[in-house]
Amino acid sequence: MKFNNNKKKLGTKITQAILQDTYEAVPQLMTLLAPEGWRESSFHQELMVCRYEFYHEFLHVDDYPSTEIDCRRSETDQEISSESALSFDEYLYLTFPPIGNDHLELFYILSSILIEITFTSALYRDHEFDAYYFDEVQCEGIMIQLAYVNNQVDKEWANIAFTAIPPPYLDEMDVHHCLELLFTILKKHGFKLDYWHGELLYIVELQDMYWAILYGDLDYEEKDSRCQQIKSDISEILERYDSSYIDPLNLSSIVDLLNRRWVCPFVLAYLHVYDDFPKGYPYLLSDYEGY
Q: Residue 56: pLDDT above 60?
C-alpha cells in the first residue's frame, strides 16, 4: 500500500447523508459528554474562548479569512470585512454555530472531527478503487444548510452565516466517544479507513529533504547547518513519543517506535466499532519508504 495523493472529494449527497446522521445523533452524545448540562461543560466554555480570540483576529486583518482563520469565503464575507468594526455580539450573530444553540455547537464539533479524520487518511469502500476525503468548504456549507433544514436557524441567517472558529480541545475519552459515534455512522454508509500517520509522513518528507541537501550543490557550512536543523526537527517530534535517542534518519527504527509507543485515537475508536484495525495499522516500513 502506498500513500494516495489522488483522493477524491466525497460527493455532496453522501456527505449530506453522513452529516444528517451526525446531526441526529447529537442528543444522545451530549448526554454522555455533558451530563451536568452543555452550558456547564468545558466544551462550551472553550468554544466561547475560541470565539473571543478569533473575534480579535477578525478585527486585526484587512482581508479575512487569513490562513489562520478557518471559514468559508463568500461575497458576504468580503462585504463584512470592508464595513466598520463589528461588536462581539454582532460577530457572534454572523458565525456558525449560532450563539446559544447547544445542539449546533456539538454538531459543529463533531463535523470538525469528521473533517479531521480524512485530513491525512482516506475513506474507501470494498470493491471500489477510489479513496475519498471530506472537503472542508463543502462540509461547512452543508452544516449550515442542515441547520436551516432542521429548523434550527432561519433562511436569512443561513444565507449570511460563516464558520470562523476551531473546535475546542477535547480530552482523550471525549474524543473517543465522538470518534466511536462517527465511525459507527461511516460504517453504516459502507466506508472503511485507510489510515496514515501524519507525523510519520512529515518525517519521511524531512528525511528526503536531508538527503537532497546533503548531495546538493551548497557550500559546506550552509549544507551542514540545514542538515543539522532537519535532524533536530525530527528528533523534537520523536521526543514526544520516547525520551531515549532514536537516529532521526533511521526510518525503520522510527516506525518501530510509533508502533510500540502510541495508538492514535482514530485507530482505537475504529477498532471498537469495526472489530479490526484500519488499513495502514500497524505501520509498515514499506508503506512509508518513498511514499
A: yes
